[in-house]
Structures are given as structure tokens and as C-alpha cells.
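Worked example 2:
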Amino acid sequence: MAHDTAIEIETTENQDLWNGGQGPFKASYGKLMMWYFLLSDAFTFAGFLIAYGALRFSMNAWPVPDFVFSTTPFGGEGLPLIFVTFMTFVLIVSSVTALRAVQEGHMENQNGVIKWMVATLIGGGIFLGCQAWEWNNLMNVEGVSIYNNPFSSSLEDGKYLTLDEAVALNPSLQRKTMDVSVHGHDGAHTTEKLPYLYDAKKDVKYFEKFTHHFFHRHSADDATTSVKTGTAFKSGDSYLVTYNEGEYFPAAYSTVNENNKVELKAEAMGPRSFGTLFFFITGFHGFHVLSGLIMLLIITINTWSGFYKPRKNGHEMVEKVGLYWHFVDLVWVFVFLAFYLI
């Protein structure tokens, strides 16, 4: 009889082990699946950043972040990493507001959840708007694209110069302008003055600005020259564009020789892979931010309508999207390190 009772107890215990319903780490199915997704996404970003690092350190010359990312909206120049630092700060603050929304959700405070979710939406929107401005500036002002990169890093000691700085350091250089007939996409013709420095000894012309369009020179010695350009540098930017033997070389730099005289040198285009990797990886991250904003908006609207209140689960959907948003912020830290600091 006692033997039968022992068997019955053991059978009951075994059945309890296989009944299920005990979530691992006390996490719901939804949160566990979110963690699985974030883990797989982390591997994806890791692969992209490792590829970037492998290419970055396999090349002798690479754009200097302090120089590439030195402009800000409203005409700010020569402010290395100021704008991207602001972007990073905004994104980190939005992670804090997302955490506050989760806390309010655990307390079933519907109004508190809405308030902090809206703050998170604003922060994410500001970050995405800043990234759009940075892309526009790099493509339309600086001339960076997936197949063209005017930025490199000088292989000799020196600094980037404007035309005025070059003339001040070396008065033997002559500052000239050239009448240029610009052919717009709409077929209209306009004329503008193209400033450049002329070194008679080397017969080299150093240009500070050129446009997106086809143009023909009016000067007699250049009457047959027709050049298609791909970048538009603004007057006063801290670099030169050199033109020599029919070719453009962005980003000239200066060196000081033994006689303490400035020598201008043309620096070749930077590695093409810089623009490709930058736009792809930051664009992939930006897509995650956009996806997160859409989810935040939907969950905020559902919270406002009272959709989650009857569930009495601490607004778990807010916590799930909060996990995703924290992940997006964490990934940006590594992207920031790779592109803007190294």
C-alpha cells in the first residue's frame, strides 16, 4: 500500500513538471520573443560594424571625423562633432523618457504613460530630423555619396586652408577668378566667378568652389575645357579643390618646407567605401529609429484609448517597445564610436 502511494506521488510530481505555464526568467512570451529579435538584430549590426572596422584599418588614408563632421545648421562651421553630440544627447534622453513611460505603465498610470511616450516621440523625431539634415549636408554640400568621397586624411603633417589663408601664408600665389558659364538642369545659362589660386611655377590652379553642373570656361586658354563636376563646396570652407591637367582633386592641404614656405599639395579622393558604409549603416540605424517611432505612436494611441487598461498587465506593450528603443540607443553608441570618434 505504501509502495503504491509512493508511485502515485512520484507520478503527480512528474506531471507537474510537464504542465508548462512557467515562463523562463519570469518573462512573458511576448517579452521573450522581443529579446530573441533584439539578439538577432545585434548580430546584424555587429557584422556591419566589423566589416566597417576591417575596411577602415586596412587603408592608409581615411577621413578625419573632426573635419568631415564639423558643420552645424544655421551656418555653423569649424565645430567638430558638436552637432552629432547633440543628436546623441537627444537620443539618450529619449531612452530615459521611455524608461519613465515603462515605470508609469507598471503603476497603471495611463496619463503618465502618455506624457512620457509623447516626450520619447519628440526626442526620436528630433534625432531623425538631425540625421536627415546631416545626410543632406554631406551629399549636397560636401559631395559625399556611395560612390564618391572627397574627404581623405593627409599623409603628411599639415592643415587645411582656405584661399585667403593660403595667400596670406604665401604671397607669391596669385588669386584669380574665372568666368564660368553654368548650364543648369533646366537648360538655363548663368555666369559666375570661380575663384582660384594660380601657381605660375607649377602651372597649377587651386579652386575653392565648383558646382554640380556642366560648365565651359570663357578664358582663351581654357576654351576647350568642359568638366562635369559632382560636388558643391561653399566659399570659406576649410579646404581647397585643386584643378590640374583636367582633373579635380578635393581637399588640398599645406606643408611647411625647410625655408618655412607654404607648399600646397593636392590630396586624392578618399576611399570610396567610406560613403558607402556611412550611408548604409547609419541609414539602417535610422530605419530602426523610424520603425520605433511608428511603434511608439501606435502604442501611445492605444494607451490613450484605454486599450491596454483592461489587461491589468502593467502596460506590457509599453515595456516591449521600451526594450526595442533602448536597443536602438545602445546601437547608436557603437555607430557613434565607429564613424565619429575613431
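The longest helix spans residues 110-142. The helical segments are 2-17, 29-56, 65-68, 82-106, 110-142, 163-169, 273-304, 316-341.
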